[in-house]
């Protein structure tokens, strides 16, 4: 696969609870090309959340190798992982995770400030909000926005640092059907028009259908990899 942005090689994750070892991932391997939209799908307890935490540099594997944008991250220190998360990964969560007392613009500016950017943060945040259709909601706080609009703010925040990947964990889980379809349409548009690499983590086959490939996980292993129905899902 040309120009891989994610390379996962025989990743294993074992949690230790006293003397008991609980394997969450058992030798998982796959690649994601730059500009691809994939879904990781599996039931509760399948290991998909553990895999997402590793892909997002929130956790380390017990064994195996993970390369993000060409950099081996499996053995990095906590501070190094934090730096990689800020520069290379944009997160979109089911619960939005916006700061309630801050405006949409201020919420989107946060990753830029954490990265130490001193000038131009307002302009970049505004451009990101305009890209997700919220140019007229810059000064609104989360409680003044609908669920779908809050998720758009979260997507703008994930995009603002131009990350190598966006990890979207059940991004429509707290939304009604129409808002969920709008958010998925937005993610597909960003993927198609800007070449944003997106990894969806979901248990919902309707959400997974938006992806080009679906990695099915069960009992900590890849069960199969199938093609999504992206062409039919979004006109």
Largest sheet: 6 strands, mixed
Please provide the count of β strands. Answer: 10
**What's the architecture, going by CATH?**
3-Layer(aba) Sandwich
Task: Strand order, main sheet: write it out.
Answer: 6-7-8-3-9-10
Structure annotation, total helices: 8
**How would you describe the shape?**
globular
Within CATH, the superfamily carries the name: P-loop containing nucleotide triphosphate hydrolases
The CATH topology: Rossmann fold
What is the CATH class designation?
Answer: Alpha Beta
Q: How far do the termini sit from each other?
A: 27 Å
Summarize the model shown.
The protein is of the alpha/beta class.
What does this structure look like?
α3 packs across α4, α4 (121-131) packs across α5 (147-159) and α5 (147-159) packs parallel to α6. The protein has a single domain (34-48, 84-233), classed as 3-Layer(aba) Sandwich (Rossmann fold), CATH 3.40.50.300. The protein has 235 residues and is α/β, with parallel strands linked by helices. A six-stranded mixed beta sheet has the order 6-7-8-3-9-10, with helices on both faces. The protein has helices spanning 48-55, 78-88, 104-114, 121-131, 147-159, 177-194, 205-208, 230-233; strands spanning 4-17, 20-33, 37-41, 63-68, 71-72, 89-93, 165-169, 198-202, 213-218, 221-227. It has eight helices and ten strands. The mean pLDDT is 91. The two termini are 27 Å apart. Helix content is 34%, strand content 29%.
